[in-house]
Each structure stands twice: as C-alpha cells, then as structure tokens.
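User: Fold this; tokens only.

Assistant: Input:
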Amino acid sequence: MFATPAFAQAAAGGGAGGAFASFIPLILIFVIMYFLLIRPQQKKMKEHKAMVESLRRGDQIVTQGGLIGKVYKVKDESEIEVEIAENVRVRVVRHTIAQVLNKTEPAEKA
C-alpha cells in the first residue's frame, strides 16, 4: 500500500562542468559572428577612411548620392569642393565619398 517517493532522488546536479558546457554554444556563436560580420566591416571602414584621407585635387569621385565630379579644392579635414559641371562647384562632406574613379598622380618635383 505504501509507495516510496524515491523517484526525485535520481536527478543529480550538473555542477561546474555543466554550467561551462552550457556557455560553449554562446561562445561559438560570438566567434562566428566576429569573423563573418564584425571583422570584415572593420576592414572595410579602414579602407574607406584611407581612401577619403588620400583625396587630392583632380581626383574624379562618386558621392553616395550619385554625383560624379572632380575634386576642385580640399578645404579642410571634413569637406571638399567638387566641380560637377563647368563652373558649378558644390561643397561635399568627405565621408560621403563612395568611390574614387580616377586617381591623379602627384606632380614630380624637378
């Protein structure tokens, strides 16, 4: 008639090894995300920054808005003056330059 309630005693705690094993998939997901998303984005940002910093007068560029023009004047660190048609010049923020089409070579010193 009497049944013993010993069924709950069979489940034992996982301990410290079980806690670490539960974090392994999270760590693995973070490592995969780093190599597939974060690292390539950082590399792309570094290349864009180098491209923007190396702009010179005469370079043909494309802005993110789709305007194509030549760098007429490098004003300061944050903006340049671009000639988009003959005698039509606009000021453009440097970081909105999407691509450099033709790069001018620096003049040789004689």
